[in-house]
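Retro notes - structure team

What went well: the batch runner handled both jobs without manual restarts.
What didn't: labels got mixed up in the shared folder, which is why I'm recording both outputs here explicitly, each with its sequence directly above its tokens.

Job 1
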Amino acid sequence: MAKEFAEAGHRRSAHCEESPSSLAGEVKSMVVSVRKEFRMGTNFSDFLAEQLKNDPELALEYHKAGPRFDAVMQLIKARNKLGLTQTELAKRMGVLPHVVSRLESMEHSPRLDTLAHAAIVMGYDLQIKFAKKHGTRKQPHRDSQPALRKKTA
């Protein structure tokens, strides 16, 4: 499983620009790989946490997939907490059921307005934050550095 995640990460880094849909396809295949090993009756979050703890390569690639995967997982978690099916959420959003299905399967990159609308109809606020990564230095803004002065004769 870690090998599949690592290969997906290698393919991603080999391209300068990658379309959101192809990246989503890679993430989707990673999720499918994890789900194949998932046993019914087990909490998926617990299962995933255990897999990430036991497989450092998997954890690295999982974290590279990052925000997109997290956003979709939060959507699914909120929908399940309310006891809604994909069809019921779609009705609340005023979209066809396949829209919610595609969003949750990560076939397409979720748009912020779609995520915000889903959050609103479920009674949530969509919150986005920039969090400081551990081990990174604060980089000064280019304009905040002192200008070089010419020597005068």
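Job 2
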Amino acid sequence: MSVKRIHIPRRIRRLLKPLGWLFGQMVRLRRWCYHKRIFRSWRAEVPAICVGNLAVGGTGKTPHVAYILSLLQSSHHPALLSRGYGRQSKGYVFADHVSENQLSASLIGDEPLLLHSLYPDIPLAVDGDRVEGIQKLCQDAPATDVVVLDDAYQHLSLKADLNMVLTEYSWPYFVDYPLPAGRLREFPSAVRDADMVVVTKTTEAPEQIRKEEWRQKLQLAPDQPLFFTSYQYQDPLPVTTPARNLSLEDIREVILVTGIARPQPLADYLGHHFTVAQHIKYPDHHRYSAAEMDALNAEVEDHPGRVVMTTEKDWMRMQEEILKKTVSSLPVFIIPISVQFLFEDEQLLFNQIIQKLC
């Protein structure tokens, strides 16, 4: 087992640990109040599957939500409800009620927009109030027989029928601390409410993974299934006219542009296939400005032969109306990613989900 902690100076972490402990205790008390029915949870009329985590960002929720949707759409009528993190709109927004040319990351968030582009026939809504949101979503999409909740593990007012908790292979929750000393939203003991745990972005081969050791460190009960997944990067996909006029063999140098939580694995992958001349990093969910795209355009013009590569999520944010003219003139490629379950556990996962839905 090889895990790492993101470095925070020891002195700073020591100062922040008491605040993290206090924060963790407050969140633990809140969860306890729901267990004891001091606070009430509401259950939707249709089954709900929650894909969440204990940490703040970076565990790969969006590709796993996409995977769950792909599993369900062949046998059910799923819908998706998300908070729509990073959007500028307020309240409930149902994607099908918005014209295609008005649908944007600023309206529904980059991750929901990406999922909508991947599964346009699956009803999608965003709402910070998950209880109200799921009721409105089921009214707007009455054929829905299961709702996938994106990042709702801490939304205890809505009781999910299945809770899937994700944790990253290189930064699992058992080596982390509650905010602000670390990035945990609550203590690791909160995983007891999960129906299954998925270790994401696994970099080791299956035969090198000690599952029982992981189970112990993750504090899992015997009846909590444990899955491991890895990312599969696909070939770069051209998304603008200048890029479509190129073949991958024509690419000499790459400018990688990312606004995601941890872009280094993507940078490492591209480095094995191309010359990454520059990596422009922005914070997760960064809203690109016209000035930034103009600067990127100037960089490409100054270095003929360079192309821009970015993530699917970043591409969603680059399609804002104010950016379209500049971005469309750039040779932009996106790197699609997919999720692969290790140990051939896809069928086991599907069986677990169907069992909860029956």
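One thing worth noting from job 2: The mean pLDDT is 95.
We'll revisit the folder naming next retro.
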